[in-house]
Each structure stands twice: as structure tokens, then as C-alpha cells.
Fold:
Amino acid sequence: MPLNPVFDRHVYEGITIGRMLLNYGEIELLIGMLLGNALESQDTALRTMFRIIGESARVSAADALMRETYKRAGLEAEYADMIGAVRWCIRARNQYAHCHWGDDERAPGIFFTELGEPAKATEGFEYWWRHVDIDLLTEQLAHFEYAGDCLAYVNFEFLHRRGKSKPHNAQMPPKRQQPNLHNPPELHIPPWLTEDERRRHIERTRAETASDHSLLSQPKPKKPSSRERRETAMKAKR
Structure:
């Protein structure tokens, strides 16, 4: 008996999700290569990156070490697009690497749930379901490939500008909008839920949406000017 019969019934969805999970490792390796360019040592870069546990922490550390180098090479905009695409890939990878799946013949597509959030409840355990379909998954896979193209261009162009490689044919792809991580949950409710479960599903979705809107509406903190930073530093020395 298959461990997860959902993907016997949804073969293309399973293949597409599998390709994203498998491609993510290549994205991390390319980040390591970019770090190696900045540190002028591939060995040091890869040892540094892959001693760090956790995808987000690993990429954040590499970003902190190499961003200024690529900025000084005149690749600030390309680098920003690249690292933004990579960070989205991390979120998608983590979402699919730690979830469980369900489907129903009454609803197209497939549903998934990650167990960390419902486990925080003080009592009971209720799955939080999200939905994807082949159209959205195809768009997501294309974003992984976009991230790879950005990484390749930044790598080749940096080496060329530093005089370490010949002219190349790589092209920086046009900036892509990040896909949704899942379809709107209020529009995709698992058919197997009871009436009470459906009500809680909708209430939870509304609460999440309200929270997201609240965060978006908050004004961003104003960055201190150079003069203000100098004055703060002087006061700290007194």
C-alpha cells in the first residue's frame, strides 16, 4: 500500500512538487558558489555555509558576507532580485518539505497541512488545510527556474567584470512576481470538513487575512540619518 495515495491520483502535481524539492539543493549550492567568488575561496565558502543548520539561516549568513562585494561590482539590482527569488524558494521548499496531503474527488487539486501551527493549541488538534493545483504549482516551479537563471547570470557576470572569465551568453531574466504559496483558503475548503470545522476554517482564514493587512498598514520605522547615527555614537562614548 502506498504511504501517500494522493500522488497516485495526482501524478503531475507530485512530480512538480518533487522537482521543486530536488531543485532547491542546487539553488543552495549556487549560493555557495557566489559566496566563494566574494571570499575568493570556494572551499572556505562551502565549509562556512554548510556548517550552518537551516536553510534560512544558511542563506542569510551567505547574504551578509557577500552582498557588499556584488554591490561594489555594480550588480546591486540584479543581486537584490536574485536573493529575493531565493528567499521565496526557501519558503516554498520548507512548506512542501514538512507537510501532509489530502484530496477529494469533489474538489480539483490537492490539499496540504503543516502540523506545527495546530500543535501550538493548548488542547485538541485540528488540521489547517491549504490548497494547490497544477496551474499554481507550475507557476511556482517556474519561479525556482527563474531563481536559478538569476543566480547563473550574477555568477557569470561577476566573474567577467572581475576579469576572471571570458564574455558569457547568460541573460538576467526579467523580474518575476512571486507566486502565491497556496490558493486562497477561503475559496478552497476541504469537502470532508464538518460544518463546525468549515466554520472554524473560515474564521481562522479571516483572522490571518486581518493580521496580514494590519502588518502591511503599519508605517515602516524611519531610518536614522547619517547625522543622527553620528550623534548617537558620540553620546554612547560619553
Q: What stands out?
A: Residues 50 and 58 are 7 Å apart (CA to CA). The first helix runs from residue 6 to 9. The beta strands are 100-104, 107-113, 129-132.
